[in-house]
Specification:
Shape of chain B: globular
Number of helices of chain A: 11
Number of strands of chain B: 0
Order of helices and strands of chain B: HHHHHHHHHHHHHHHH
Largest interface: A-B, 36 and 35 residues
Radius of gyration of chain A: 18 Å
Distance between the termini of chain A: 37 Å
Largest sheet of chain A: 2 strands, antiparallel
Radius of gyration of chain B: 20 Å
Mean pLDDT of chain A: 83
Helix content of chain A: over 70%
Number of strands of chain A: 2
Strand content of chain A: under 5%
Strand order of the largest sheet of chain A: 1-2
Helix content of chain B: 55-70%
Oligomer: heterodimer
Amino acid sequence: MEQILLLAGLRSAVYALLALGFTLLFGVAGVLNLAHGALLMISAYVAFTAFTILGLPLVLAVILGVLATSLVAAGLYRSVICRVQHSSILTLVVTLAIALVLQEVVAMAFGLGAKSLPPPLGGVSTVAVVRVENVQILAFVVSWLALGGCWLFMERTRSGKAIRAMAMSGKGAALVGIDIERTYTATWALSGALAGLAGIFFSYPGGIDPRMWMDPLIISFAIVILGGLGSLPGSLLAAHLVGFAETFTYYAPQVHIPLGAPWVGVPSLLLTVLILLLRPQGLLGRSAP
Amino acid sequence: MNRRRQSRASYLVFASVVGTLALLPAFNLVPKEWYAPLIFANFFAIFAMSWDLLAGYAGQMNLGHALFIGVAAYTSGLAGTHLEWPPWVTIPLGMGTSVIVGALIGIPAIRLRGPYLALVTLLALIAVYKLVLIYSDVTEGISGMSFTPKNFFPPLGYDVPLERVKLVTYYYSLGLMALIGAGLLVIAHSRWGAIFRAIRDNEAAVEASGLSPAKFKVVAFMVSASAAGLAGAAYVHLPVLAALQPAGLDGVLSLDLSLSIIVASVAGGLGTIIGPLIGAYITKLGQQYLSALPSQVEALHILEGQGWISLLFWILLVLLVLFARKGLLPLLMGDLLCRPVEEIQIHTGRSQQ
């Protein structure tokens, strides 16, 4: 039980990272990006290719994966999404189609079978009385560093301020001379980079396959809808709630509860639907959708 | 005036599509290997038309239409294999379950709008898909359920000589398509259809005229689910079906099916019933034609498998949304089938009777 609690705390950081990119896009551009899970997949597969096939060092492979995801996200925005983002329904249809396009491309290139990316840090260490894999600790540290870096970026830099201004009022931002298109592209690139980083750590435990995008997508939905769409503190809280529910589901067989890996995503689905029905503004959200 | 002409035009187009399909085997125009794809296309046409009534007419974007199909198919299939109930019990059972699911999805639609409703439909589909995989000891999971001849619908499985099974199944599926399609057309051109369109275009106006949009949204979901469910349940009891799969382009509970219904309907033109019908035949037969290509053409051998066809579909969908949102068919056929928004009138109960 202690182990599940600790793992949940570690994993929730990755979930927060995952949801941050998703909620950022919704807050700034009003876009629900159904291809968010597929972006995770891109980074995992790029890192896999760079490391296993090209034989690059793992750190470089991870950086390549994150960069590639960021580029793909920005490219998607410039080529497709910018033309449809005025309609939320068309955006949903198009981003879902893009997720499936990416799934088929990956399946054609790598096959449907699962691949595994070796963990950047091997071994097991003991925290308090619980043994956890080092990669989970690394994921926790890197995720919080990225979350902090993201916060600094939003608070201190010009581009970050532009993004926050766009989230408050698109028209107001345009009036004070912020380049809307550039800021949207930057937001997509940032969201892609966050998804890319989450994608590296999301694949432990488990491995990567062309259908892996669905669970992260469901989980980001749950977090973002639970926390209130576009609310960053809400997302952070919700990430930990969802993180615990999902981690408990995954490790439940250890305490003799018949759940386990196939059930991952089900708690998130239930939470999302319940919240949408009972409290559509989320836990800390301000206005109803 | 114009309204009546368009309504008559769509009945005429529908009758000629059904007539053409009915005459194909009589003139020996169908090669043997094309019977199965045509049968599947008949079902796919029902799926697309029922989706169009909900999304095209009532404006309730349903990203998980496969849920209605899959729930009916699995209910009917499970009752057939595990309880050994005969098809004439399991088909209505499957359809009934689908209508209930339709109502359950429709009730959130009263409160949720636009993208949030679309999300609920999508998540509900994913949830049921996960359940099928989790309980794979009963549902046989991703590999799909297989059936024995006693599960087939009686006129198709028991007494029919083997070489005639395909022909009989073809006419059975075409008859089902004609029946459900005609029903959906009648509903679309009835008072209900007018209210559905009015909800799509201006919900406040519907409410102002004394009608309950909430009630009619649930009705739209239930009508759509009943048509899709009847087809989904009947689909299970076909002798040409190798296995009932949950995933993939031919699966009944997949995102792929949901999205390919949207591809067919958007290509054919939303909100016309006829458009999605024709779109469904073109995409389904196109899929069959393309999947046969790699084995015939030397240069295309690398494209074995179904993946690249799905890929083409999804790219087509993105292109359609970007460049031809009104659909390819309305582009070609002009305004005959596509009704301009200004003409919609709301008929209240009294004025029609």
